[in-house]
Design a protein that fits this description.
Shape: elongated
Radius of gyration: 25 Å
Structural class: mainly alpha
Number of helices: 10
Number of domains: 2
Largest sheet: none
Number of strands: 0
Amino acid sequence: MSSVMRGKPPARAGLKGVLLFLLPLPLLFKAASGLWSGDLGALLFNGGPYALFLLGALLARQGLVKEVRYLERPMALSPPPPLKTIAAVIIGLATGAAAHFAVGHNLLIAAAFAVGAAAGVVMYYGWDPKKRKMAAGDHGVDADELSAALGEAYGKLDGINTARGSIKSREFQERLDAIVAQSDAILKEIERDPRDLRRARKFLNVYLDGVLGVTNKFIEAHPKAQTFELEQNYRAMLMDMEQVCKEQHEKLIQNDVFDLDVQIEVLSTRLKREGVI
């Protein structure tokens, strides 16, 4: 399959945020030295701030990843929790604790270090994204309804991408990539024209639930029963879903009403037979 058809990988923030894991390493070394020499004070006064630094770095990293995903899907998700702000506060506290307990500065100087560190994190990594207004109401579609429907649909795509990593077959991985890519394109069309949501609702519910449910069932059953018939059934399911998804996307581009009920009913019947819906 061509690379155009491949599914999108989960949103990534690159190396951004990695620096936060590196800066407190001297505290870790001092804590390890205290452990080695039996110096409980050195272990606690250096290990405690390091643990706070590590927690802050992890939260900041998660905040950056969620921010990338939010910006990539502007109409689909509510703003992520303010993880970067929480991380800035924790890193500020860690810096103040390290300055006072590990280095020996007085409380006033330690507090200044804490404020400076928190401000530095915010200045370098920015504030957490805020909720943006959506123009869905201008198309006769409730903005909250649109956000909830697309958020749920994107969550299913993330679930499919996650499940894909548990499948060893290259063919099945590529078919899932194609399904995710086409589904993502459909959701982007709905974002561009929210009126398509009502036309696509039945498709989104049956299709995305189906492919996620069938894939999870295949992953669960395959190690127990690696049979040719099981793989053939799963292959046929993916092929059917690829075709329906492609046709649904074409209908959206043409601004036609969804008239693929026959294909959807075929998929629905197959999914019911598999016990997914």
